Amino acid sequence: MYKVTVFGLGFVGLTTALGFAEKGHTTFGFDVNHERMEMIIKGVIPFMEPGLNEALTRHLDNKFFLVENPIDAVRQSDFIFLCVGTPCGANGQADLKYIYSAINMFSDILNDGKYRVMVIKSTVPPSTTQEKVTSYLRERGLIPGKAFGISNNPEFLREGRCWDDFINADRIVCGVCDDKSSQMLQTLYREFNAPFFAVSLNTAEFIKYLSNTLLSTMISYANEMSKIGDVIGDIDIKDAFKVLHIDKRWGGCNMASYVYPGCGYGGYCLPKDTQAMYAASLEKGFEPMILKKVIETNESMPDFMAHKICKILSPSDNIGILGLSFKPDSDDVRDSASGKIIAKLIEAGYHNLLAYDPIANEAFKKDNEEFKLIYCASLEEIQKRADVLVILTAWQEFLNVNEIYPDKTIIDCRYVL
Predict the structure, then answer these.
(1) pTM above 0.70, yes or no
(2) Helix orientation angle between 201-232 and 289-312, rounded to the nearest 10 degrees
(3) Is residue 192 scored above 90 in pLDDT?
(4) Under 8 Å CB-to-CB from 384, ≥6 apart: which residues?
């Protein structure tokens, strides 16, 4: 069994650390966010993710150890996994500052005679590991492939399904540049019983973006078609898409949640990854027009939905917003369509706004303090206080709200009723 140090304990990092612990490896976790570290030390997951609470209970101080000083952990480890954030830069490029910051913490150890594999699990555009991270290391006198290995290992985790997606992976992809790193990674993942693909560094990164930009494109395609249907009129958009999903050419795959209209894609991954892939291509001298239009379509959805709401309601109406997270079964409010639509409504003079989300009220309130919303604790409370309900996130609790409250006016921006 190996020893693994994980930098960054967000959705990906904590799942990775606990997943390897589940398979018998000793894992060390470190995060610069002290509040997050304190919560995890107490056995509390700092975000909603089914399965992780139980895994943390099983492995904390058993196979999974939090460390205040990552240097000692790295010195013991065979693998160093970087699971830190890679936010969008000013021009859409992936910002690598957190990767470089993490490397700075342990770079002095890499030439100590123990062969380790440094693994970039953070999502970065194709060519990042090979051209940028490797160059950063070489500037510090560190040559990958000699005293240590460098690899990337993109994640394919869905928020709300992270634990199951990691433990029951449908594929494991590792970008490698030397045989020893490849062999060690195959051994590390041997107990996962999933197809293992050792490919070039650029290919592994490309596979990740191939996946996410396809999802973005399908969502924007569906949203653009729903806008066409809305403009033409007398089209049941929900039923039309349900019939589309029956097409046998889908081959039994389940892409219905992506090829389905709504308010646009949000969260952390799809917006930044689609933007980063577009920016990376521009850097190489090619403008990918489909991705450009995907981004433009997604950015147009809040205006479209806000306009749709404003056509029906007046500023004097008490409007109840149902759903604040970017998707159901998650408390993640980053880049959520709800936030963008609420901002548009406020800009248009609509200030009598109430909001309810099954789990994301506090997270949304913390991230959007400028919004003077009235937050309700239940569906029952918001329907009593609001004149009209607007569905912005397709939580299961909202899917039959028209049947529960048949006399209430409801605007369905997710086409779920």
Answers:
(1) yes
(2) 40
(3) yes
(4) none
Architecture field, domain 3-199: 3-Layer(aba) Sandwich (3.40)
State the first-to-last Cα distance of the chain, in angstroms, to the nearest integer.
51
Catalytic: 269? yes
Give percent above pLDDT 70 in the chain: 100
Active-site entry in 269, 310, 376, 413 = 269
In order, the DSSP letters of 233-272 are -S--HHHHHHHHTT-GGGTT---TTTSS-SS---SSHHHH
Cα 119 to Cα 7: distance, rounded to the nearest angstrom: 10
Phi, psi torsion values for 100, nearest 5 degrees: -65, -40
Q: Which of 331, 258, 328 is nearest to 298 (CA)?
A: 258
The full set of domain ranges for the chain reads 3-199, 209-412
Q: Look at residue 17 in the predicted model and tell me its pLDDT.
A: 98
Q: In the predicted model, is pLDDT for residue 253 greater than 80?
A: no
Question: What is the Cβ-side half-sphere exposure of residue 4, based on CA atoms within 13 angstroms?
Answer: 30
Distance CA 12, CA 157 (A): 8
Question: CATH assignment of 209-412?
Answer: 3.40.50.720
Q: What is the tens place of the pLDDT at every residue in 323-339?
A: 999 999 999 999 999 99
What pLDDT was estimated at residue 89? 82
Q: Show Cβ contacts of residue 379 under 8 Å, excluding neighbours closer than 6 positions.
A: 322, 356, 397, 398, 401, 404
Q: Would you say the CATH fold of 209-412 matches that of 3-199?
A: yes
Say which amino acid occupies 237: I
